[in-house]
């Protein structure tokens, strides 16, 4: 995982860009979870959130393969985001989709502003896997700050 994190870090050196990523990456991750949560699910195979959890299982498998430490920490974060999403879905129902789309657009604008300030293109323009690296990069920084 370290080469991915190092490469991602090289594209995120400006302090403002880093702050924007600390705000926007978790929001974008939640939005992706929330938007998939609202995809209709045939009752015979599951309930709302089924497609989101299915996608998160695949993402988790990738994280776990790359790093057990980050995989375990991201598992906890993803479970918490799913709990938050379930709560939001119970309050908003399918209308959660509109909220998630609005936050998604604003958060991506924040990301692109950060990269404009940085003067570098977003990492995912070179490899879509970087869409998964962003949350891992933040988790790695968080774990290091707390000494794990």
Question: How is this fold's topology laid out?
Answer:
Blueprint (H helix, E strand, L loop, with lengths): L1 H9 L4 H23 L12 H17 L1 H25 L3 H23 L11 H16 L3
What are the main properties of this structure?
mainly alpha; 148 residues
Please outline the major beta sheet. Answer: none
Radius of gyration: 16 Å
Number of helices: 6
The share of residues in extended strands comes to under 5%
| Low confidence ranges | none
Average pLDDT rating: 96
User: Portion of residues in helices?
Assistant: over 70%
Instruction: Return the domain count.
Output: 1
Large-scale geometry: globular
Determine the N-to-C terminus distance: 16 Å
Order of helices and strands: HHHHHH
> Tally of extended strands?
0
Class per helix and strand makeup: mainly alpha
Describe the overall structure.
With 148 residues, the protein is an all-alpha fold. The chain has one domain. The protein is 76% helix and 0% strand. It contains 6 helices and no strands. The model has no long low-confidence stretch (mean pLDDT 96).
